[in-house]
């Protein structure tokens, strides 16, 4: 496996990113790895490496490039009030228009990268980016073959005309949603609404609950990290991508 750094140009600046490629000859199917609110950091590089070792080209972008280079939070730093407020200020810049622009930049980069097959894209988002994964799948329905969200929040609010679940008719990808059953950002009514929207649109999807787990269970430096649940999530992810991208 090889790891390289990329500088992706956008109208809003340059996205500092990591690209991890498997050993051997490509082109390899592509995965976009989108981070939780604490941004790109070593724990996600390790996750990207685990995916790359299975034969995928993995792009790990710094979603907060408009504000700072990664890592924007010192690894293992406490998630205190100051850090939370700073990250929320960065997050506010990730408007729907900003997300769409960044998605274009990601796909354009995959298109231009040797050894990558950008006609076969998978995307996974955690926490705040669970919704990003669904939006990317809707924006590039003929490219994105698999999309996953783990402990994603606010995926189907009833009072939001731009909510992710309303994009279901545009999604052609296989979708997997992994919920922590103790997650205030994914209340039962939203889970039911998302499932109903995906089913009505004819999306090939699975919904899975991680009983007794909290928001953030999949990520090793999260206070809610659960090793067994995280290992289970990775198995699910590799199955989804293996069956959909190869």
Pick out its properties.
globular, 8 strands, 27% strand, eight-stranded mixed β-sheet, Rossmann fold, alpha/beta, 246 residues, single chain
Could you characterize the architecture of this molecule?
This protein has 246 residues and is of the alpha/beta class. It has one domain (2-245): 3-Layer(aba) Sandwich (Rossmann fold). It is 33% helix and 27% strand. The protein has 6 helices and 8 strands; from the N terminus they run E-E-E-H-E-H-H-E-H-E-E-H-E-H. The chain has helices at residues 42-52, 81-91, 96-112, 130-139, 188-200, 227-245; strands spanning 2-10, 13-21, 28-34, 57-61, 116-126, 144-150, 174-182, 205-214. It has an 8-stranded mixed sheet with strand order 1-2-4-3-5-6-7-8, sandwiched between helices. The longest helix has 19 residues, at 227-245.
